[in-house]
Every structure is written in C-alpha cells, then in structure tokens.
C-alpha cells in the first residue's frame, strides 16, 4: 500500500488539477452569462462536456478511490485541514460511485429535458405537462438517496447535501416558530393604518447613476481590492474561482434603482465570504463556503441586517442623493428607510420583502417534505400551494405560472435546497446578536465603517471555508447551536417599529 | 499496428479534447483582458499552467506520436481534410518533441523574464538592459530551428511558423518593391502643397455615440449574427473559440472616434474569417485561419480597401453624423474621407497610416534578417533602427522608447512574425484586383452591401480554414502566386489621387 507521504503528494496533484478544471469551467460559465454571443451555447456545451468528463474520471476514478482509502487508514495522522479535505472528497466520491453510472446518465437526461418542459409549462400555465417530471425526479432522488445514504430518510439525505447536518426535525421546529410568530405579524401589518407610500420611487433612475452607486457601495464594503469584479446579468449572482478572483453581478432596472442597490449588497456579502477564505485553503476543495445556508447567511447579513438598517441609511442615502440629485431632491432619508422596509405580501418569492420571504420558503419546504414522504401526490401540489399561500400570506394565487411553477429549482432536481434561503436569514440574525457583545455594530454601521464587522465574520466564519461544518461555524459565530428565536425576535422588533404597531393591532 | 479506423477514432477523440482545452484557455484569456479583477493573474496563471500541461502531454505524448505514425502510413487513404489535419498536428508534434524538454523549459523562463525586462527597459529608455535578452533569444531560436527544421535557414524556419512556405527570398523581392516605390511616394506627399487638415477631429466624441457606431458597423459587416460579440480592452484584438463564438474588442478614445471605428472594421475582418470557416472543420485543428499573413489580409481588406475607400465613406458618414450630430454638423463627407487617409510619417508602428505602415515593418524585417544571419550585433540595433527610420520615413527617432524598444514582439520571441503584417496588406490588394473581375466591388460598397464581398472571400479563403496552405489560398483568391506589384500599384493610384500629386512632385 502507498505510504502517507506519497498519498498526500498525489492528493495535492489531484486537487491542483481539479482546481484548474473548476477555474476554467467557472470562467466559461460566467462568460456565457456576461459576454458570450447568443448562439455560442452548443459549441461551449461540447467543450464543457469534455471538461466535465475529465473531472468525473478524476473524482470517481479507481485511482482516487484507492488514494482516499490510503488517507482514511492514516486518519489519525492527518491534520485538521487534511481530514476535512478527505471528508469533502470522500463524500463527493461516494456520491459519484454509489449511484450506478447508467442510472446517473438517465437522470442527467431527465433533468436536461425537465428544464425545457418546465419553462414551457410555466409560460403556458400548464402544470399537468410538468407534473410527470416532478414525479420521476422525486422517485429517482429517493432511490439515489438510498444508494449514498441508506441509513437516512431520503429527504434528510438531500438536505444534508446543501446544509450538512440539517434535518427535517430541526427545520420543523424552525418553521413552526415562523408560522406562529411571523404569519400573525404579517396580518397585523396588513391591518395597520401606517402604510408606507413608495410613489416617489416611480421615476427614471439613469444607468450612469446606478453604476456610480454600485461602485461606491463596493468601496464601502471593501470590495474595491482588485480581487472582485462586477458584471451585468439578467439575474444577479456570485461566483468565485480563487480568493483573488471573485465575480458578482447585478441588473440595472431604470425604473427602480433599489434592485441593483440591494443585489450588490447581497452578492457583495457572498463575495466577502469567498474573498476572505484563509490563503492556506486555496487550491483545495475547502476554499469557498461551508454550505448553502452559511453562504446565504453572509449575503442576508449584509443585505438586510446592515443594508436595510436605519444606521446604514444614514451612510448610503447621501451617496444615493449624489448619484441622483434630481430624483431625490424632495425625498427624506426616513422615507427611503421606510420604503426599503415596506412589507407587502406578494406572489413571487424573488420579489418578496424581508419579512414575508421566509413564508414563501415555508410553502416550498412543506410541499417537498410531504412529496418525499408520500403524503401528497404530485397532482395535488397546485391546490396545496395555493391554500398555503392564502394561509401564510393572505394571497390568492391566480394561476400556476405565478404559483407552483414559478421556480426553476424542482426542474433542476434541487429538492432540499429551498430551506437554506430561510436558514441563511435566521443564522444571520443569531450571528449579529452575538456580534453585538464584541463590537458596537450600530455605531460602526452609522460611521460607514464596515471593516470591523467583516473582520469579525472572517474570524468566525469566512476564514474556515469548508474546513468546519455548519454546526461548528454556528457555534463560532453565534456562541450556541441554531436557535431561530433570534430571527423572529429581530423581525418582530424591527417591523413593530417601522409599522408603529401597538398591542391593539394584535386583535 | 493499429488499423486506420481505430486510429481515426482515437484521432477524433484527441482533437475533441484539444478543442475543449483550447476553448477553456481561450475564454480564460479573453476574460482576463475584459472582465477579471486586477489581482487575479496569479491564481489564473496556476490554472492555465495545469491546463497547458495537459495539452502538452496530449500533443507531445508517445501515444500521439504513434497515432500520427499510423496515419502517416495510411497517407494515401486519407481524405484531403484528414491529410491536412495530420500535417498540422505532425508539425506541432515535431516542434514539441524535437526540442529537448529541458531546453524548452529554460527558453520559456527566458521569455517570461524578457517580457518584464523589456517593459522596464522601454519605460526607462534603457536598451542596454534588454539587449542581452535579444541576444539570448535569437541564439536559442537559431538552435531550436536546427532541431525542428535542420535543412532550412533558421530565419526561414521561423518565417514558416507564421506564414507556411514564406522565405527570405520572397520577402526580399517584396520589400525591394516597397522600397523603390513607396519610399519616394511618401517623400512626394511630404513635399506636396495639398496637405490634409484634420483639426475638425479635435473634439470630444461621447462614448454612447461611439458604441452606437460600433453596433451599426457590426450590422453592416454582417457581424450581428449572434455568433460574434464586442468587448472593450486596452488594445483591440480578435479571438475565436468556435465558429459560433468569436470575440472582437475595441477601445474608445473620447478624443478620436476613428480609432474605435477602424479597430472594429479591422477586427471585424478577422472575425468574418473565423466565423465563415466551413462547419466540417469545426472541433478540428483546421478551424481558424491558415496563417498570420492570410488572417491579416482579411482584416486589412476590410479596414483599408473597404473601410477607407471613397465609396464606403458614402455609407458610413451618414451613420457617423447620426451618432454625433453636433460634432459633425460642419464637416463634409469629403473631409472625412481625406482625414482617414492622411499620410504622416510617425515614430510608432501601431499609429501609422495605411501608406507608411509597411515601411515600419520593413525596418523590423531588415533587422531580424541581419540578426539571424549574424550580419549585425545586438548593440548596433538602435543605430541601425534610427538610420532606417530616417531613410525610409524621413523621421528622426528621439529615443529607444519610441524606437527599437517600442514593440513587444522580440521580447516574446516572435521573430519572423512582423512580415505577416505587411504581407496581409499586400495579399489583400492582390485579392481585390481579382475580386473585381467577378463582382462590382465599388458599387456594392457604395450601396453598403458587403455580403457578396464576404461571400466571395468565404468561397475563396474563409471556408478552408487551415486545410489549404497560404500559397493555395492565394491561388484561389488572387488567381496567381503572390505578386506585390498589385499592392504598390494600388497605393500609388490611391495616394496620387488623394494628394493630387502631379509628375512635377516627383523631382
């Protein structure tokens, strides 16, 4: 058998190769969204296919299996970092090897087809066309979970893919808390007489001003370091290829500058996480975020806890006024603050405000859980969706296009992914509570000095990449295990103030 | 030994892999010039290094050597296309294998260092700092030529790398013609009383107008096909990853819109070549241009023969007026035409006008040839440069920064590359002469109908990619072997008209 030194050397070469492939494929994908000509998809697809095949051969190859076995036998001699690298690759290897190749190929074809069918079904408001695909995807995913995690409930197995360690049991507690505290809160706000007037926003917001605002915002967040670039895409996202090469994107709507403003803050939060991973983790599988939920906690932290705070408005409003002197001349900072915190239950998740967003996620979680448990049939999904939207948000869904068909996730087979969006928000509220015992967050934000805040997050979370599991990172940053009451406390306090709710609103 | 069917199958897989690597590395390189953050070079360099290594292992591997041998033994059974593919890969393989790996690694290090030294030397006007690198590079290149082309003169061997089949003998004839006809022409123009006033150009040309102009120009050239995208870089260039994914770039100078205008036409000419390669050559080594000179003939064709023609001004000037209504209101089409054809001998090659450009190349060719023949010492280069600039262009070179140190090519080891710039112009003049016997070029250009022109070039040149050698492509498109008198005839006729030269100017 190979000795440990040789194995570690081979392992390093293996990771270096994968780093290069992942860099290349990442840039090709980013380029395809930002710069590539419209009809270039087929030729690029062929090239990406070949590179994916190289990656598959490396990560699922017999040689890699042996290498991981050797490292496993030397487990006790590995450093913390090496043990974490082994954990990540072993999970990846098992996933690749335990699912029979032929079944995986069939599944990839199914997903490929499902995407096109979903798009058409959404456009034509035809749930029945997409239904058989949901059926088949869920069936396959349950089968796959049996291969790679035979001891787990299948939905827990998939939750673990996005949020290692997360279970239905924890999520049930989390969402029960949301249901009991946020649903009534939304109802109280709807009944309130203190509604927020946002009519001043209905103006034209020139591109040059929006671009200038994005630039100044990135400076404020410390993203002007030559390691992060801003691009323009249909839907904003963040992608990182190394800690010195992170990209965020935004979209400028001429009729609403706040979309770009908050997408830059949100993606900027993701970017800071990628940028602040410890250099020692570079070119290894541990670079990048620990989980979807932890990553989302960083973007929501900046977007909502910082970006929509009263203190931050004091910093960003003068910059907005500088970028749009004409448009803002009769608007107060207070009005801006209330505008960006307006609550309005609506149909579409991606357009939801801070308070109602998590209720959209709750609808999806309940349905996914029931689907996997066989407690609901696929053809019952639209009705169940609509009834929960009514119950949680007081909203009547007019059609499936604006209801159960709105998201692409199920067509992509991403069951178990949605909860991480809500977890991110909840984690961030718990983090800031703990952060407040170390630094004076509000004063720092009011001064526009975000550096100590980012440093705190780097020390507790960013630097570790995937080396620590989410539970450990929560312990570091929250001082305790996940507890969603921080989140509901925060939301209640904030929105009671904004909407000037009194006890009489409760009735 | 492997049978032909198996060999061809393996060969196809081999090319498919290289297509993917080349696509990935091409996009990474394009992205690095257009979108990547400033400090991302190191991490990307590591990834590119690993991918290059994969490419080297494939193209220079023993398995590939055997494969090429098998195909070689079946030469008579190969199709024209297969034989051409074999020719290209065999040349690449020989180049990779005949140079000892250790010597090649040393050379790569030398070139890497030379780039930084050259940049510093240029900035500090310190030729002596860069001189030892020229010495060492030429010495190494002569040695390498002995490995991969032992029967050839070393400079001819390197010429052949950029322009297959080209020799000093042909270039000597070409440049002798330029010397005898263009040098006196430039002198006559300088003595002429009909100088061109370009003071109207000294205005601000807003970005939005320049972007609109670039867009309309691309439409005019048929580049609005969803297969070609325009980017913005410091120096314009063209790169193609597949016939459905070609990128051109430009640079907008607010003080001179003609720079972007002509860079888009020039790069657009390159792009049309890449876009119109026959689909059957895709994903093979034959996709893309046949040689540097042939590629340059396409860009110069559009830039000068079309773009600076009197007829094209009738089409583009109204568009320019639409993009810049204020700036152009007192300017005539005639003035624009004369402005873009103004001759003014100057120090810097990349800023030279159509007429004097080839004389800059002649200076470089003469020096490269003498260096390789040992007829000049490296430390004599600045003096020789300055004296030729005086002789050919009547220009006094103030310092080496604006003289012998201006170009990056020698630091990159690209000896033998410069002549292709002048060859491209000369080829294009010969091509248009032949094209005129098939279609009425001037009327088509005057109508803004460039499609039949591009179709003609596609039929004679573009479609063949690298399948045919430059000599064959010249035969197709010029109806005869290379003859530079078409070029000098064209220049004489054009500039006699523009500068209204009479016989008395000759004295």
Topology:
Two copies of one chain form a homodimer.
Chain A (H helix, E strand, L loop, with lengths): L3 H31 L6 H19 L2 H12 L6 H19 L2 H23 L3 H22 L5 H9 L5 H24 L15 H14 L7 E5 L5 E5 L2 E6 L6 H19 L16 H15 L3 H14 L9 H7 L14 H20 L7 H13 L25 H17 L5 H6 L4 H10 L9 H9 L6 H14 L9
Parallel strand pairs in A: 1-3
Antiparallel strand pairs in A: 2-3
Helix pairs in contact in A: 1-2, 1-3, 3-4, 5-6, 6-7, 8-14, 8-20, 9-10, 9-12, 10-11, 11-16, 12-13, 14-15, 14-16, 16-20
What this model shows, in words?
2 copies of one chain form a homodimer. Chain A has 20 helices and 3 strands. Chain A has 507 residues and is mainly alpha-helical. In chain A, strand 2 (238-242) and strand 3 form a beta hairpin. In chain A, helix 5 (101-123) packs antiparallel against helix 6 (127-148) and helix 14 (354-373) packs across helix 16. The termini of chain A are far apart. At the A-B interface, helix 1, helix 2, strand 1 and strand 3 of A face helix 1, helix 2, strand 1 and strand 3 of B.
